[in-house]
Specification:
Blueprint lengths: L1 H30 L6 H18 L4 H24 L7 H22 L16 E4 L2 E4 H23 L1 H11 L1 H6 L4 H27 L5 H4 L1 H10 L5 H21 L5 H17 L23 H17 L3 H26 L7 H17 L4 H23 L4 H20 L2 H4 L5 E2 L4 E2 L2 E2 L6 H24 L1 H11 L1 H6 L4 H24 L4 E2 L7 H14 L6 H5 L7 H10 L5 H17 L4 H19 L29 E10 L2 E5 L3 E3 L4 E5 L6 H9 L6 E6 L2 E2 L5 H7 L1 E3 L12 H9 L6 H7 L8 H9 L15 H14 L4 E5 L7 H16 L4 E5 L3 H7 L2 E6 L2 E6 L1 H6 L1 H7 L10
Parallel strand pairs: 10-15, 10-16, 13-14, 14-15
Antiparallel strand pairs: 1-2, 3-6, 4-5, 7-8, 7-9, 7-11, 11-12, 16-17
Length: 903
């Protein structure tokens, strides 16, 4: 009967997940956002309820209403003051904003209730024992479930049958159309934020008598609620009810039958990870928006600057700075090292990880355990850094499918799970007594942060500088360009032969090593290492916060952002200004700075200041009549040599009987074609005929239901897009899909550089001098891109960007080049020049070209053969003369004309 007892107890816990998830669904329906601050907003209402009821004697019903009202107003305020101004920002930027709100609210609660940070709350509902199915359980658990069922039924009815539901659906499906009909998206979003936040307040008020009130609930409760909402696709209240209830039951039963510490916390993480990964695709689909990320620095690390600055810093540590400030430096630099790991994972690769401090904790845990077993500090440090690689690889593999917000959910769940199963397990960590690690020693030098803080600060400084140089080398090397290409546009990177999977696994692995190193240095500052609350998920969120404030793509950013961490130089500055404030003040200040930065300086403070300094320097140099940008391109080593194009490896593309289905719609049904070396084959048809789908099928971006794709004798249908590109199949995109974060030169380099895996190691030490190879220089000259090499694509005209897109594909030396509407958006003269370029690619370079184009005159002029599609089927194939006279083509493609096509 114990199983029944825990089942009924789990029903009560699951009901609370359902209430929180219902609020997440309401907010997502109204604004399309996943609000990570949801539980934190609800906790503000719960603390209000507790204070009014138990400290000020307000009647229970009035305290409940007041708590709900506080959360509802706070939710609406967050939307109006933070999220609405960010409505045109990328989803990742808005997600980071909700994380900042979450961290800020948790800090505010810590400050407001400093003496009551954890409180037990008297039950609000009757707790008398109730007999059900032959067992006795507390009655409040069943009442909570009953309340939840009634509320979910009410929400389902309201959003299904009332005007509010219809208006919310209209706004969520088409924001502009709804606004055109006179529906205010802001009013609807604010109302849904208020209602959703009210649900969070009610849930936390109901859970308070069971778990107590603590700000940590903001992270521990959000994961099971997110798991519930994810399964319900942030849309279905009934599915959320079933999922949350089942989740609570499973957790309760596992707690009883499998007494492994923290395993119950891991279950929601497993659920959300499995569901998200199953629903995600290995590569972004066509039409998915490509978002702008924060700017990225050059990664330039000049020895003539780094060495003197490091030497000056060491002199300050040893002879000028007071001891307590030196100790603060010894804390800040390890934190900066963890933030540096965010630069690699998020800044360079675009993967939002909320688990970097968990990796730091894993490194600290492994190093501490090894030290307890007698391992020297240097050995423990190296093995601790290496220990994170297996888990980093797993997360990188998850990142190959889960992107953006979904990956953030998965990594936050990982952080919660690691905390519950490892850091809060006294058997592993020693509990309150911790692990005795003593004073670390390296090469006979004692690195005691307490006895010799200058030695420890110097050591952490040298480690940080070394790691920053390595990360700078990565940014400047060809491995870094691969990461940035994947970050900027994963589809385009794959089309150039860059493996998104390899880039992500590498970034997470390197990020894990850096985080682990920082975690070891941070914890070994004390002779006794305790875990407990040291490596909470909130700390991982703070690492992202500090990275974004400083500049998530810049090497100096971690030094600036880490000042917002407790115990660092920022703490000393705040102490000098305001006495000895609670460390939560730094978290609150950091959250406010982050929100302001997202609104005013989304790239961070370092790039903002760099931009201002550069602008000032340019003004000064102009006074002397010269600017660095005035130097000719040749003087900067951009071009060199006058080699003409060499012919590419001759391969023939054979496409046979392709069939592609999207659900119940057949997009392609049986077309076949052959493209040989030096041949231009045209592919025409009306909009929706299946032309781009054919290119996607050939290059591996959509799966085939039937058919074969051969490059000479090599069967390509089992290969992914990147491997097909490396085999000799190149393509451009109708929407260009350039790497907007990179210059034109870097775009070309990313296409033409070797794809050797060793670059991920060698460029860390020797990034090399990026030089355009002979084939790429020939492409630059062929497309007249010399004046544009140091510009970013966004600075060029549309016609120039189209040429860059083609030149980038050509720089990869494909044997067969697939061009998707290259003449779209350019005038007749430019189209004529483009036609000559395409013809030269075939005649001079020896490429086979498959040209998809609506410009019939261009197709007829440059193509050797033409294939015509209608509704996914081949209706004609032949020479331009044959196609021009084909009656069916005329009828289908020219809208019923009975005369031949005039060109």
């Amino acid at each position: 009967m114990d199983a029944v007892t825990f089942l009924l107890l789990g029903v009560g816990a699951g009901a609370l997940y359902v209430l929180v998830a219902a609020g997440l669904i309401l907010i997502h329906r109204g604004s399309g956002l996943i609000n990570f601050a949801h539980v934190a907003i609800g906790l503000c209402g719960a603390y209000t309820y507790w204070e009014l009821r138990e400290l000020r004697g307000v009647p229970t019903w009035l305290a409940v209403l007041a708590g709900i009202a506080v959360s509802a107003g706070l939710g609406a305020g967050v939307h109006l003051l933070v999220m609405r101004p960010l409505r045109n920002a990328s989803p990742l930027t808005r997600l980071i904003a909700t994380l900042a709100v979450m961290a800020g609210l948790q800090a505010a609660m810590q400050l407001r209730y400093a003496d009551s940070i954890y409180v037990r709350v008297e039950p609000m509902l009757p707790t008398g024992a109730v007999s059900v199915l032959g067992v006795t359980v507390p009655g409040d658990r069943l009442l909570v479930f009953g309340i939840t069922v009634l509320l979910i039924a009410l929400l389902w009815a309201v959003y299904r049958w009332t005007a509010l539901g219809r208006i919310t659906a209209a706004v969520s499906e088409n924001l502009r159309a709804a606004a055109a009909l006179g529906l205010s998206p802001d009013v609807i979003a604010s109302l849904n934020w208020a209602l959703g936040s009210a649900m969070a307040a009610l849930a936390t008020i109901l859970i308070a008598p069971i778990s107590g009130l603590t700000p940590a609930l903001a992270t521990s409760l959000i994961i099971p609620a997110l798991a519930t909402a994810v399964v319900a696709r942030f849309a279905s209240f009934p599915i959320a009810l079933a999922t949350g209830t089942l989740l609570g039951i499973i957790q309760s039963e596992v707690t009883y039958f499998v007494p492994v510490p923290g395993l119950d916390a891991a279950i929601p993480f497993v659920v959300v990870a499995v569901v998200l990964l199953a629903r995600s695709k290995p590569i972004a689909a066509r039409g998915e928006p490509v978002f702008r990320f924060a700017s990225v620095g050059t990664g330039g690390v000049r020895a003539r600057y780094v060495l003197p600055v490091t030497l000056v810093a060491l002199l300050l540590i040893w002879g000028v700075v007071p001891i307590d400030w030196v100790s603060a430096v010894g804390v800040q630099l390890p934190v900066a090292l963890i933030v540096l790991s965010v630069v690699v994972v998020t800044g360079y690769t675009g993967q939002l990880s909320l688990a970097q401090f968990a990796f730091a904790g894993i490194g600290a845990f492994v190093a501490a355990r090894l030290t307890v077993l007698g391992a020297p500090f240097g050995v423990a440090l190296v093995l601790a850094c290496a220990s994170t690689i297996p888990l980093s690889i797993v997360v990188g593999l998850a990142g190959a499918r889960a992107r953006g917000v979904n990956l953030a959910i998965v990594t936050l769940g990982l952080a919660v799970t690691v905390e519950a199963m490892i850091f809060n397990n006294p058997v592993l960590t020693g509990g309150f007594d911790g692990l005795q690690v003593g004073t670390p020693t390296l090469f006979g030098i004692a690195l005691g942060a307490i006895a010799t803080p200058a030695v420890y600060a110097s050591f952490t400084l040298l480690v940080f500088v070394g790691c920053a140089v390595v990360v700078g080398n990565l940014r400047r090397g060809r491995a870094g360009r691969r990461l940035l290409a994947v970050r900027s546009n994963e589809r385009a990177a794959a089309a150039l032969g860059i493996s998104g999977l390899g880039a992500k696994v590498y970034a997470f692995s390197l990020g894990g090593v850096l985080a682990a190193c920082g975690g070891v240095l941070l914890t070994f500052a004390n002779p006794i290492v305790t875990f407990g609350d040291a490596f909470t998920p909130l700390r991982s969120i703070q690492m992202v916060q500090e990275a974004v404030v400083g500049g998530v793509g810049w090497l100096v950013g971690p030094l600036l952002g880490s000042t917002l961490d407790p115990g660092t130089v920022g703490s000393k500055i705040m102490e000098a200004v305001a006495g000895s404030p609670n460390p939560a003040w730094l978290t609150l200040v950091g959250a406010v700075i982050l929100v302001v930065a997202l609104l005013q300086a989304p790239d961070g403070l370092v790039p903002l200041n760099t931009h201002l300094l550069r602008a000032g320097w340019d003004r000064v140099t102009r006074l002397f009549g010269r600017s660095p940008s005035d130097r000719p391109l040749a003087a900067r080593g951009v071009l060199g040599g006058d080699e003409g194009p060499s012919r590419v490896a001759p391969h023939t593309l054979h496409v046979t009987d392709l069939k592609v289905r999207f659900g119940g719609t057949i997009a392609l049904d049986g077309p076949s074609l052959t493209v040989g070396p030096g041949e231009v084959v045209g592919l025409i048809g009306a909009n929706g005929a299946g032309k781009t789908t054919l290119l996607d099928g050939v290059t591996g971006f959509v799966p085939l239901d039937r058919g074969s794709v051969l490059l000479d004798g090599l069967e390509l249908h089992t290969l992914g897009p990147a491997r097909r590109a490396r085999a000799g199949l190149g393509r451009s995109f109708q929407s260009l899909e350039l790497f907007d974060d990179l210059t034109v030169r870097e775009n070309l380099l990313s296409a033409s550089e070797r794809r050797d895996p060793w670059a991920y190691l060698t460029t860390l030490l020797r990034p090399g001098v990026p030089a355009l190879n002979a084939m790429t220089r020939a492409a630059v000259q062929e497309f007249d891109l010399g004046p544009d090499l140091d510009r970013r694509p966004g600075e060029l005209s549309y016609a120039r960007r189209r040429l860059v897109a083609i030149a980038r594909t050509v720089a990869a030396r494909p044997s067969v080049l697939l061009l998707d509407e290259p003449a779209a958006g350019i005038d007749a003269a430019e189209a004529h020049e483009l036609g000559e370029l395409i013809r030269r690619l075939a005649d001079v370079w020896g490429m086979g070209v498959l040209l998809v184009e609506h410009d019939v005159e261009l197709v007829m002029r440059v193509c050797d053969r033409i294939l015509v599609l209608e509704n996914g089927r081949e209706i004609a194939t032949g020479t331009p003369e044959q196609i021009r006279m084909d009656a069916r083509v005329i009828e289908s493609y020219l809208g019923g004309s009975t005369s031949p096509v005039e060109v």
